[in-house]
Amino acid sequence: MKPELTGPDGRVVVRRWTRHPRCVALARADLRKALAGWGLVAVEEVALLVLSELITNAVRHARVPGHKIETRYLYQGDEVQIEVHDASDERPELRNPSCEVAHGRGLVLVEALADRWGVTPCPVVGKSVWAVLTAPGSGAGQAMKGGMRHGEADAEMDGT
């Protein structure tokens, strides 16, 4: 499938999805293709897992009739920023689920795998949950690891 919008320099891929579980696999395929084109296959496995967790949360929890989920992949040199925008104003919460609970571990994985991540309110409606991954060996990711985290907003990070 062709993305709805690709930036003029090929550094941004944007796609809108209906809120349905099958969009997770489709979004993963788009991200895999973008990463290959940007030469960032070294982060592919982690990026696909992070995206799966973020978009699955949007599919499950962002129940706003008439609104779609939007994914954005931004190529930033040796980094990729993965964003999932939805129309819900409810902020995701990092939890520490017990072993008996079947759900609630997605953001724990994002926290562990991403160099940084956060939630940014959108200007009109909803929010963007984003994560940044750095290619191994670049050094930038390790220096930033532990920096901006859950709940911190950064206008530069979401492109606004």
UniProtKB/TrEMBL annotation:
Keywords: ATP-binding, Kinase, Nucleotide-binding, Serine/threonine-protein kinase, Transferase
InterPro entries: Anti-sigma-factor_SerPK (IPR050267), HATPase_C_sf (IPR036890), HATPase_dom (IPR003594)
Record-linked CDD domains: HATPase_RsbW-like
Record keyword Nucleotide-binding present: yes
One Pfam family, short name: HATPase_c_2
Secretion signal, residue range per the UniProt entry: none
Molecular function via GO: ATP binding; protein serine/threonine kinase activity
Classification via SUPFAM superfamilies: ATPase domain of HSP90 chaperone/DNA topoisomerase II/histidine kinase
Chain intervals for the UniProt region annotation (Disordered): 140-160
Residues covered by the Histidine kinase/HSP90-like ATPase domain: 21-117
Protein name (database record): ATP-binding protein
Organism annotation: Streptomyces malaysiensis subsp. samsunensis
